[in-house]
Amino acid sequence: MLNLKNVLVVLDPDQEQQPALDKVLTLAKMADFNITLLSCEYTQYLVEGYYFDAIDLPRLREELLAERKAILEKQASVLRDNGLSVEVKTVWGHPAYEVAIREARQMQADLVIAHVRQHSAISRILLAHNDWQLVRCCPVPLLLVKEDAWQHDPVVLAAVDPKHARHKPSGLDHRVLAITEDLAKLTQGTPWAVHAYSHLTIPQDLLVEERADHEQAFKTLMADFSIDEAHQVLSEEAAEFAIQATQKEIGADIVVMGGVSRSLLSDVFIGNTTERVLDFLECDVLIVKPEDFVSPVSDA
Prior knowledge:
By secondary structure, the protein is of the alpha/beta class. Helices cover 39% and strands 19% of the residues. It has helices at 19-28, 57-80, 96-106, 121-125, 130-137, 172-186, 204-222, 239-250, 264-269, 273-278; strands at 6-10, 34-41, 86-92, 111-115, 142-145, 155-160, 190-196, 232-235, 254-258, 284-288. The protein has a ten-stranded mixed beta sheet, with helices on both faces. Mean pLDDT is 84; it is low at 124-128 and 262-271.
């Protein structure tokens, strides 16, 4: 399920630290794949009719792209010094997440890696940040990385919901677990799984029945995979809190989660477990879409 042949790394050339480069180098030491470093460039100063004559704009944009590419080339040299095949691209376009998704689609990327920072609650509601849009719209697995390095033998935690309608063999939970096992095998790490549920106020005599129902659904799902039973966690807590608590308790380096896009209105009033979790997790997060997911970003 995680057969890496082409990996796209989205970078901001001006960043002093590049966690995405560190993580792709770690993966490349364990698998053979092609790497493309991408910088998405856009500035309002070089938009027609803003500051410069229309005749000068193409030249000025090309000069900007050339300058940014030169920075990426220096950053790529670290990877090339390790014997890796690296292509560098700087593309003019806006918004940046659409540029990245089109590039991923064009190069048939198996994985997109991007650095993510924490944001305020209001920014999530307003969808003001590029990484939130990548979470919603990127059709291939998306690895959002933070600053901390992985352990020598990383712990990879799958967050699943076997009571969800998509728990069939072709559904999202199976895809999340398969990729979790593949990533753990690739990195010589340890796979874990967590299923969290929170119940409404119900009579005490029904609580035992509800837990038994979730236990059976979790057990049935996990029967298709080789994750040790001791590494399977069932939590009676809201998913965003249970995932965070489990990640800290077991020292997970990567949490693998399903991502299903919702409408803007739904996101504002309901929220999305994946997005609520992102800001609170201290580790990296791998977002996996259903196999039938169609990105709203067009090729145009």
